[in-house]
Design brief:
Blueprint: H1 2-21, E1 28-39, E2 42-51, E3 57-63, H2 77-85, E4 89-93, H3 105-119, H4 121-124, E5 126-136, H5 138-148, E6 170-174, H6 191-194, H7 202-207, E7 221-226, H8 235-246, E8 251-256, H9 261-264, H10 268-282, E9 288-290, E10 303-305
Parallel strand pairs: 3-4, 3-5, 5-6, 6-7, 7-8
Antiparallel strand pairs: 1-2, 2-4, 9-10
Helix pairs in contact: 1-2, 3-5
C-alpha cells in the first residue's frame, strides 16, 4: 500500500505542478505556508488560493489523501487552482499523520482549518456561510466526516465558547471510505490509524465513520469513485449515498467505469460534475437546504430555498 500511495503522490505532484505551470495568465493569487493551527508536532500549514476581485467568494477546503499516513497539501495544488479559477477561495491544508498521530487528530485538524477560514474570512475574501470541502481517498473520508458531524460531536477540548463553526455547506468526496463499522472485526488493516482492530476499538471505528452521524441537517454531498477500485470499493460511498437519500438528504454518486482508485481522481467527467455540484449549492442566490419529502416544493426534488445550513458563519 505504501508504494501504491507513493506513486499516486508523485503523479499528483506532477499534475499539480503542470496545472500551475501551464496557466496562461494568473486569475488568482496564492499565499503559501500559512499556519492555521499549532500542535505538539509543530505548525500545520495551508496554501490559500484567492481569486482576483473583491469577493466575498464561496470557499473550498481542499484535503489531500494518503491513507491518513502520508501526503501533503501540494498533491491537490492543481485542483485548488481550478477552484480558484472558478471563483472559489480554495484552501489546501496539511494535517497530522498516523501512526504518530492517530484518529481523531486528522478530523480535529480539518475542523480547525474550517474555523480558521471563517475567522479570517475578510482577509481571504470568503463568504463564511458558503464553505465546502473537497477531498480524495483519506481526504474524501475527512470531508465526508466534516459534512455529517455537528459542532458538538467529536470536537477537541479547550475550544472557546465563541469559536466559529466547523460545519460545511457542501461536500465533494472522491474514493472515500464512509463506514468502518463493517470492517471485519479482526482486521488490522487500519489499526495503525485507529489504534487497534475493530474488536479492540469498536468505538473508534464508529467515531471515524461518516455514515454513523447522518442527520437531517447534513449538507448536499457528492461522491465519485472508480467502479474497479479495490482499495476503497465503490460499495462504501454507494451505501453512504443511499443512507443520505433515505434520510431525505441531497446526495449524488458518480461511478467511473474502468477506473481504479488512482485513476478516478483524474477523471474529467467526475471533476466537471463536482464543480457543477459545488456551484449549485454554494453559488446560488440563496443556499438550498434539504427538507422532508412531504414538505418539498412543487418541483418534487426534496429541496426548497432556505436559510444557510446550521452552524454557518457565526458558530451558533
Amino acid at each position: 500500500m505504501h508504494s501504491l500511495y507513493a506513486r499516486w503522490l508523485f503523479a499528483g505532484i506532477l499534475i499539480a505542478v503542470g496545472s500551475i505551470a501551464n496557466a496562461d495568465e494568473p486569475q488568482f493569487d496564492v499565499s503559501y505556508g500559512r499556519t492555521y493551527a499549532t500542535r505538539d508536532t509543530g505548525p500545520l500549514e495551508a496554501d490559500v488560493y484567492m481569486p482576483h476581485g473583491t469577493g466575498p467568494f464561496p470557499a473550498m477546503l481542499i484535503v489531500h489523501g494518503g491513507a491518513w499516513r502520508m501526503g501533503t497539501r501540494v498533491q491537490l495544488a492543481g485542483i485548488s487552482s481550478q477552484f480558484a479559477k472558478r471563483g472559489y477561495t480554495a484552501i489546501s491544508v496539511d494535517y497530522r499523520l498516523a501512526p504518530q498521530s492517530k484518529f481523531p487528530a486528522q478530523i480535529y485538524d480539518c475542523q480547525a482549518a474550517v474555523r480558521w477560514m471563517r475567522a479570517n474570512a475578510k482577509e481571504f475574501k470568503i463568504n463564511p456561510e458558503r464553505i465546502g470541502g473537497f477531498g480524495y481517498s483519506a481526504g474524501g473520508h475527512l470531508v465526508a466526516l466534516l459534512g455529517t458531524l455537528d459542532d458538538k460531536t467529536l470536537q477537541e477540548s479547550g475550544l472557546p465558547s465563541d469559536a466559529p463553526s466547523a460545519r460545511l455547506q457542501c461536500v465533494l468526496a472522491g474514493g472515500a471510505p464512509c463506514d468502518f463499522r463493517v470492517i471485519p472485526a479482526d482486521s488490522a488493516q487500519i489499526a495503525f490509524w485507529l489504534g487497534g482492530t475493530r474488536a479492540e476499538k469498536p468505538d473508534m471505528y464508529r467515531d471515524a465513520s461518516p455514515a454513523a452521524y447522518i442527520s437531517s441537517d447534513d449538507p448536499p454531498m457528492y461522491f465519485f469513485s472508480g467502479e474497479d477500485d479495490i482499495l476503497v470499493p465503490i460499495a462504501s460511498p454507494r451505501a453512504m449515498v443511499s443512507s443520505l437519500k433515505a434520510a431525505g438528504l441531497t446526495a449524488e454518486m458518480y461511478p467511473i467505469k474502468n477506473a481504479g482508485h488512482l485513476q478516478a481522481l483524474f477523471d474529467a467527467g467526475a471533476m466537471d460534475h463536482a464543480f457543477a455540484f459545488a456551484d449549485r449549492y454554494l453559488k446560488n442566490e440563496q443556499p438550498r437546504q434539504v427538507v422532508a419529502a412531504d414538505a418539498a416544493d412543487s418541483h418534487g426534488d426534496g429541496l426548497k430555498t432556505a436559510a444557510p445550513s446550521k452552524g454557518a458563519g457565526d458558530g451558533q
